[in-house]
Amino acid sequence: MILQAHEMVLLVLNYGDLIRPEFQIIPSTGWGQCTNATDEFLIVYGPKHQNDRSIFDTSPYVLPPGATTPNRWDCDGFFVPSDRSIRLWRKSKSGPLAIKFWDFRRFTVRSQRRTIYQAPWNNGVFEPSQVNWAIPNFTYPRVLERIGQFVCGTVGTHAGEVSPPCG
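Above: the chain sequence. Below: its structure as C-alpha cells.
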C-alpha cells in the first residue's frame, strides 16, 4: 500500500528537550522511498512540514506497518527508538538513532527479531546531535503514546506494549 502525501501523519515532538545544531536547509531534486515491512509503526524523516516549527532539516512522520511512503515524497530515513536496535552487518547498534538513505533510493525496513530492525545499504547511522534531525530519546511505547489516536489500540504493538485507546 503506497500512501498519498496527505495521508502522512506528522509526529509532534517537544523540541525543547533536543540538542539544536546550527540550522541549514540543503535543497534536493531527488527523492527516496521507504517501505515498512515490520509489524510496528515507523517514524520516517521526510520533507519539512509546513506546521513543523523546529530548526531541523526534516520532519518526522508516521509510517504504518505494510505502508510505503508516497511517490515523489522525499523519505530521507527512519528513526530507531531507544529500546530497539538496527542490524549492521555482523553487529547491532542500539537506538536512539536516525538511519539515513540518499536520494533516489528505495529501501525496505524489516524486523529481524521483534526489537531489531534491518535496512541494508543505508548511508549513515546517526546518534542525537550528529545530524540535524529530531532524534528523541523515546522507547517504542513512548512513540505509540505520541502518535496516540492514529494508533487506536494494539495495531503495531507487541505483548506488554500498550498503545493509547481510541476515544
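Confidence is low (pLDDT under 50) at residues 154-167.
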